[in-house]
Amino acid sequence: MKIYIIRHGETNLNTLGLIQGWIDEPLNENGRALAKITGRAMKGIRFDCCISSPLVRSVETVELVLKESGNHIPVHTDDRLKEIGAGDVEGKPMSVMGEAGKAFFNDPFHFAGFPNGERIQDVCERTQEFLKELMARDDGKTYLIGMHGCALRAMLNFFYEDPSDFWHGRVPYNCAVNIIEASGGTGKLVADDKIYYSEENAVDLYAAR
Fold first, then answer.
1. Which domain range does residue 137 map to?
2. Using the 8-state DSSP alphabet, how is residue 42 labeled?
3. Are strands 186-194 and 177-183 parallel, antiparallel or unpaired?
4. Which of 24, 39, 40, 127 is deepest in the core (most CB within 10 A)?
5. What is the number of domains present in the chain?
């Protein structure tokens, strides 16, 4: 089986460098454009099933990818694919947490968690549970999975050569695609943060925050 995992397109909160968490923020114009470019580049891939985070920015991304790639299948949702719950910090800059917030990007496994929200370990647990259940199906099908930057890194953490580097160098770019080939309940990451648009438009909007 083959699993394509895509981070959602750009949103206005992304461009402002604000923490989105579970805020239901739609894609902006550039985010829709990136999703369409990605979808057109994936024309010829026949997806058997699509599962997304229920948050609108993720659903909108996979809907555009499916449409542009010529796939006419429904989008199912799973709460385990949601972004990290940022609790009281949603819609705010990480700086409101002061020194405690710096660990989110610099030392995430020792990040204490968002007030009334989640820790990195919580997101690893739920996203990896989803992925391992999916791979256990071993059904030979091709899946499109829509999700979010932190959640994507959490899901794929055990595939990385250095799992201690949670961010794997950076927050994944908007509409970055990771591809897993799975058989017998185990998988291999065969494409890592692949983008189908011009590299000059690939921006880590959180790098300096």
1. 2-201
2. T
3. antiparallel
4. 127
5. 1
**Is 172 a member of any domain?**
yes
Distance CA(1)–CA(187), nearest Å, equals 9
- Asked if residue 207 belongs to a domain, the reply is no
Burial of 5 (0-12, 13-18, 19+ CB in 10 A): buried
Strand (E) positions, 116-173? 142-147
pLDDT tens for each residue of 139-174: 999 999 999 999 999 999 999 999 999 999 999 999
| Token pair belonging to 114 | 């968002």
Residues 23 and 77: their CA atoms lie apart, in Å, by 16
Short-list 186, 178, 190, CA closest to 138 = 186
Integer Cα distance of 151 and 177 in angstroms: 13
> Would residue 204 be called left, alpha or beta, if left means φ above 0 and alpha means ψ between -120 and 50 degrees?
beta
d(CA 148, CA 175): 9
- pTM attached to this predicted model: 0.96
> Residue 206 falls within a domain, yes or no?
no
Q: Are 81 and 130 in contact (CB under 8 A)?
A: yes
For residues 162 and 160, what is the distance between their CA atoms, to the nearest angstrom? Answer: 5
CATH classification at residue 159: 3.40.50.1240
3-state SS, residue 191:
strand
> What does the pLDDT look like over 54-72, one tens digit per residue?
999 999 999 999 999 999 9
Q: Does 81 fall in a domain?
A: yes
